[in-house]
Design a protein that fits this description.
135 residues; Alpha-Beta Plaits; 4 helices; elongated
Length: 135
């Protein structure tokens, strides 16, 4: 009988611990703010100019200092498999993450961003922007 009581005590203690653990877990509350992703593609006027590309990339790096940018990725087309759905015609891109649309608006109006446009705008012939938010 002692084994049965010990087993029952163990099972009861385990159930109580599991219940306490579930109660202590944070609840998944819906996000009030939707994270915004800002992806920009640049086509240079002088597509083969390594100097112009270097200037553009240096200009893009200055944007890191804008406080509302949570993550910044600056890149050039990857040497991946050629497929009909892959567009590698651009020369550079930036991918930014913001907490919300207000953070992205701050970035758009920020003096560092405005200076980047003023200093580097003459380098590109085309820019395409894709913005998306969490669903």
């Amino acid at each position: 009988m002692k084994k049965t009581q010990t087993r029952r005590a163990f099972v009861a203690a385990a159930a109580l611990s599991a219940s306490a653990a579930v109660t202590a877990m944070p609840t998944m509350e819906p996000k009030e703010k939707k994270q915004l992703v800002h992806h920009v593609f640049f086509w240079l006027k002088n597509r083969d100019s390594k100097e112009d590309l270097a200037k553009l990339l240096a200009g893009l790096r200055t944007l890191e200092k804008i406080e509302t940018i949570r993550k910044l990725h600056i890149g050039v087309p990857a040497s991946t498999e050629k497929r009909d759905v892959v567009d590698s015609s651009y020369q550079a891109s930036e991918l930014m993450f913001f907490d919300d649309t207000a953070g992205q608006k701050t970035y758009q109006d920020h003096p560092i961003h405005q200076k980047f446009i003023k200093d580097c705008g003459h380098l590109w012939e085309k820019v395409i922007v894709y913005d998306s938010v969490d669903v």
